[in-house]
Design goal:
By secondary structure, this protein is an alpha/beta fold. It has a single domain, classed as Metallo-dependent phosphatases (Purple Acid Phosphatase, chain A, domain 2), CATH 3.60.21. The protein contains 6 helices and 11 strands. It has a 6-stranded mixed sheet, with helices on one face. A 5-stranded mixed sheet has the order 4-3-2-1-11. The chain starts with a strand and ends in a 5-residue tail after the last strand.
Amino acid sequence: MKILHTSDWHLGRMLYGKKRYPEFEAFLNWLIDIIKLQKIDILLIAGDVFDTTTPSNYAQELYFRFLSDVSKNTDCQHVVVIGGNHDSPSLLEASKSVLKALNIYVVGAACDNPQDEVITLTKDNGIPQAIICAVPYLRDRDIRKVEASETLDDKNKKLISGIKQHYHEVCQYAKEKQIELCKTHKLEYLPMIGMGHLFAAGGKTEVDDGVRELYVGSLAHVDASIFPDYLDYVALGHLHVPQMVAKKEHIRYSGSPIAMGFGEAKQQKQVLMIDFKDGK
């Protein structure tokens, strides 16, 4: 099983007033070729598909044309998309039901029930292939209750606690699901993949890279401990510099696929391929 991890496309983004649609289109065409060449089974898109919550019609056309091409013209079996801080949850979610029929799963915003962010991907024969903890960008209102007389420090602590609790609930349910499915289908192992769109502690950014602060103050200090050790891989979005988190090989930002500003001009851009053999 081969998984491809990408994020932060920012479709529709302009550079000093100049439209960049040919660049975005070239990247998406290249990505289709890579999916075919590498025989990718699962594509993960870890947030910030669009650059604004009101993307242009052409930006949306590029997105849907790409998903159609993946479905019709490649052997990729599943696509999982999570919302980022630049994305409109309602826009992403609007096509959710239709896309699900094409094995394209969208989680645009935090779900009322964290279990709904756990997606079981199956092969054509119905055998489970992987479990995805598809956690989108968590907005303040999703994870924190406002109280009178709160200090900024109080708010930050609640935000950090809320994010940790949300990931704990999603991953714990996924772990229980993994045990159940392995038992039911007599599997030795079932890979479990985490997804997220956030700013992990120690993350590297570049000047003029277009990354906006996600939350107030110290939330950037959320560390790798929120991702449990039993996750086989964690596909993150938000930071445009490709990098590992806390020097852990299996927790990574893929980075943005094209430079978002002059600060990224000399970066080596990439997408990441994760190859599983015998479930490992």
